[in-house]
Description:
4 helices; 48% helix
Amino acid sequence: RMHDERRALWRKVARLHAGLKAMGYTLGTQTVESPIVAVCLPDQETLFGLSAALLEEGVYVNVARPPATPKGLFLLRCSLGLGHTDEQVEEILAAFARAGRRLGLPVSETPPSASAASNA
């Protein structure tokens, strides 16, 4: 059972990572390395603006900035856990798309999930 839950978690993290990347967000890693997906942003203003916009969408993310990160590195850390559903991952992606566009970031629409694409 735990093995299945862990596999499901990694699948959800992979979806979040791929979806954010497909939208145009710059990520801290090229591949999925942990249940935490880091979104790199250009400056502190964008970091706090996107964090606030996501919170308005109902998505909480951790903010990491200097001195907790190297100079010039501004991150939103998105953590998934076993309790997150596929639907919640899709909601998180949609929130990133809406919030990013609202801030004028060059992000595209939420890409369809593999399951949604195969059901079409």
